[in-house]
Amino acid sequence: MSTRDVVFPSGRQALYERNRYSPAIRSHGFLFVSGQVGSRPDGSPEPDLAAQVRLAFDNLNAILAAAGCSFRDVVDVTVFIVDPETRFEPIWQVVGEYWGEAPHPTLTGIGVTWLYGFQFEIKVIAKLPDTATVAA
Q1: Average pLDDT, the chain
Q2: For residues 130 and 67, what is the distance between their CA atoms, to the nearest angstrom?
Q3: Are 30 and 126 in contact (CB under 8 A)?
Q4: 26-48 tens-digit pLDDT
Q5: Which domains does the chain have, with CATH numbers?
Q6: b vs e for 40-49, b when ≥16 Cβ sit within 10 Å of the residue's Cβ?
């Protein structure tokens, strides 16, 4: 097995180590990003829904930037929403602030009953720039 090429955003490595997962892995020209939530620096949930979604995107964008990517490099998105029937529209209004112009990435939306105190999570796969380091 090859060594994982892990990408850590600035200032949050202890949080990921405490929870025993990698924020993102580079592999075969792609960046696989773990689900990002609207967590504060200490890992606690942001209570306001719109602010939580913005913080999830800020956390996602920090990981993408650490790998030399941006949201324009994202090819696949999975979102998890607690109670999507009531939260989808308010969440999607905020998502539009980050999504950019078409063409958009692929999307899978999943309604869930629990996200460890969060209401929204976003997980992506991005195409790494050709100049990025690629691991097997």
Answers
A1: 91
A2: 12
A3: yes
A4: 999 999 999 999 998 888 899 99
A5: 5-127 (3.30.1330.40)
A6: eeeeebbeeb
